[in-house]
Amino acid sequence: MGVEVSLDDVLARHNVGISGAEFLAELDADLSRVTDPAAAPLSGAEVAFLREHAGPAASEVLDTDPALLLQDARRAELARMTELVAGSLGIAEAALLLGVDRSRVSQRLSAGSLWSFRLGRGRRLPRWQFTPDGRSLPGLDVVVAAIPVELSPESVAGFMGTPQPELEGRTPVAHLAGGGEPAPVAELVAGLGLW
């Protein structure tokens, strides 16, 4: 007989800093936004046009069961949510990493020297902004001030972990960790809001 494990047990074991109820509420809200591909079906004429002019790949998509597409989309959303939680810290975890108390982390968030996003009722701090030895990246305050408010945590993390030609092929994280000037990173991240 197997051992029963609850979501709260898993979240606590990995020190995620949110409850199972909060995680499930956020997941439910995210999954509700995943639309059913069968909700607005194509007309017969549209299907015929796509089959005739869009090639074999279109036929393959048109022949796929919409329920399977919805299931795949929801699984992808679950994976996204799991990655978001795993790639971030709660305020208490960040305080422990930085060797400060929770109020100091909150002050740094308010001052813009750390960046966070909302998850449920709490805030999460992406791990990319911390060095392996438990410090925040140098120049982070300059970069945080430039992050457009409409950017998703995934977009910011993707940018911070992607080599940039303007930074001599280094990622923004590596550039900052190596003592590079924060202004070019801030300029690049601000430009993401223009897309």
What is the topology?
Elements: H1 7-13, H2 20-32, H3 44-53, H4 56-62, H5 66-86, E1 88-89, H6 91-98, H7 102-111, E2 117-119, E3 122-126, H8 140-146, H9 153-160, H10 172-177, H11 182-191
Antiparallel strand pairs: 1-3, 2-3
Helix pairs in contact: 6-7, 8-11
How would you describe the shape?
globular
Strand content: 5-15%
Count of folded domains: 2
Radius of gyration: 21 Å
Give the end-to-end Cα distance, rounded to a whole number of Å.
53 Å
Task: Outline the structure in words.
With 195 residues, this protein is mainly α. The protein has two domains: 79 residues, no CATH class; 106 residues, no CATH class. It contains eleven helices and three strands, in the order αααααβααββαααα. A three-stranded antiparallel sheet has the order 1-3-2. A hairpin with a 2-residue loop joins strand 2 and strand 3. Helix 8 runs parallel beside helix 11. It starts with 6 loop residues before the first helix and ends with a helix. 20% of the residues are buried. The mean pLDDT is 85.
